[in-house]
Amino acid sequence: MRAVVLVGGEGTRLRPLTETIPKPLVPLVDRPSLDHVLDHLAAHGVHEAVLSSSYLEERFRSFIEARHGRPRIVWITEEEPLGTGGAIVNALEHLGDEPFLALNGDILTDLDLTAMRAFHEERRAEVTIALHRAEDARPFGLVLTATDGRVREFREKPEEPVPGDVNAGIYLLDPAVLRGWPRARPLSIEREVFPALIAEGRRIYGFRGEAYWLDLGTPEQYLQAHFDLLEGKVRGIRYPAPYVSPEARVDLRAHLGRWVSVGPGAVVRPDAEIDDSIVLARARVGAGARVLASIVGPAAEVGDGATVVGCVLAEGARVAPGLALEGARLGAGEVVDPRSVTQGSGGPL
User: Fold this and answer.
1) Active-site choice (47, 155, 157, 185)
2) Among this protein's residues, is 233 annotated catalytic?
3) Which of 136, 298, 318, 319 has the fewest beta carbons under 10 Å from its own?
């Protein structure tokens, strides 16, 4: 089986981390989050995955060169962002005539893709859409289905909190239903393709699987994904809690809470306290510093005795010794010291 993994987004909601790292390559415990996606596909028989992007493309090339094993990766360069539907249509020549998977590259899930394929075949579906039950559908919009699972309607995001089935961003598609759509132009599969196919009476079904599912689109969700992995909530993935990379250096006098991940090359000095936080590769947390509910990006630094609470530090950002920050977002290379007039480049976490 083949798959298209959508990795072209710029990750604006996850900034400032994504100023220098494509969102699918932001580390998730011990590897880029895209590695988790590809490993999940391989476990369900996907032998080839098509990826395309126009954003920070050189970072993806390094990732592809470093990755080994299945699925084999086919790369397509997008001259301009094509959106979800455009990227899939643009990849059709690499996908053959058999049904293929398409999914967003910024989702952490243990959805049973093998069961989804069996569901698709049993119903002779042309499109199967994975559904996730949400208590508040406002960020996603609703997918309404008949009793047999056939999709009747995509409804726009409601204004009031309402529970319901939402689009999980994972699809099984018969390539024939997409061949009439124009190539090399921006196209939304959710707002254009699927509503048109429903109106044509195509066989489109929703698949409800009992699965873990989380969109990694915001700092809060990115932190939550780490916490859930450390708690063993994602089937097939196990990590010790806290997680400390073998290549990290954590002083024995430092305190690490259970929900903490420390990446390779990171340094945590004596009497530092880290709770509910992520310290990414080559970052430094100084002696006596406190890091709470925060993300310390690659090669970022929290100085001796400094405190950061609910903060996001992008690559190379630095908090000077002794300072206290709450709810700050520091851009790549940004330095906060006693002479600073701002606490970062954005709002609270």
Assistant:
1) 157
2) no
3) 136
